[in-house]
Amino acid sequence: MMWPFPSWRNSREGFVAANEDVSKLFSDLERLTRDASDQSERVQVTCTRDGVQNCTISSLGSGVSITWGHELYPSDTLADTRLKVTLFQSPSEFGRQPEIIKQTVYDADLDLSRQAGWREREGNVGL
C-alpha cells in the first residue's frame, strides 16, 4: 500500500502525534469506564492502564485490550508501529490464558487533507 504522506510516517512529528492520540484515547476510555461503573451498582467495569502502551477494559469475564507501540524495534518514527485491539473472554479456570475472540491491527496514517487517524491494516485476520 502507498501511504499518501510517507515522510510523515518516517518523522518524529508523526510518532509524537500518534502517541498524543493514543494517550487521549486511553484517558477517554478511563473516564468512560469510571462513569459506567459509577452509574451501576451491579455491573462494574474496570480499566487498567500501563502508560501509553496498554489499556485493558473488562467486565463480567469479557474485555478489550488496546496495545500501542513498535512491533519489533523501538524508534522515534511510526515505522513498525501498530495499534492492536483484542477482544477476549476471560477463562473460568485460574491460570489459563484468555480466549481471543477477535484481533484487529491499525496503522497511524494521514488522510488526503493531512488529518491524522487510523487505518485498518490490510491482511488483518479476525480470529
Secondary-structure class: alpha+beta
Report the sheet with the most strands, covering strand number, pairing sense and barrel closure. Answer: 6 strands, antiparallel
Strand content: 35-45%
Mean pLDDT: 83
Total E-strand runs? 6
Major sheet: arrangement of strands: 1-2-3-4-5-6
Shape: globular
Taken in chain order, the helices and strands follow as: HHEEEEEE
**What is the radius of gyration?**
16 Å
Helical residues, percent: 25-40%
Uncertain residue ranges: none
Number of continuous helical runs: 2
Number of domains: 1
Distance between the termini: 23 Å
Overview of this structure, please?
This protein starts with 5 loop residues before the first helix and ends in a 7-residue tail after the last strand. The mean pLDDT is 83. The chain is globular, with a radius of gyration of 16 Å. It is 25% helix and 36% strand. The longest helix has 28 residues, at 12-39. The chain has helices at residues 6-9, 12-39, and strands spanning 46-50, 54-59, 62-70, 81-89, 99-110, 116-120. It is an alpha+beta fold. It contains 2 helices and 6 strands, in the order ααββββββ. The protein has one domain (6-120). A 6-stranded antiparallel β-sheet has the order 1-2-3-4-5-6, covered by helices on one side.
Q: How would you summarize the topology of this molecule?
A:
Layout lengths: L5 H4 L2 H28 L6 E5 L3 E6 L2 E9 L10 E9 L9 E12 L5 E5 L7
Antiparallel strand pairs: 1-2, 2-3, 3-4, 4-5, 5-6
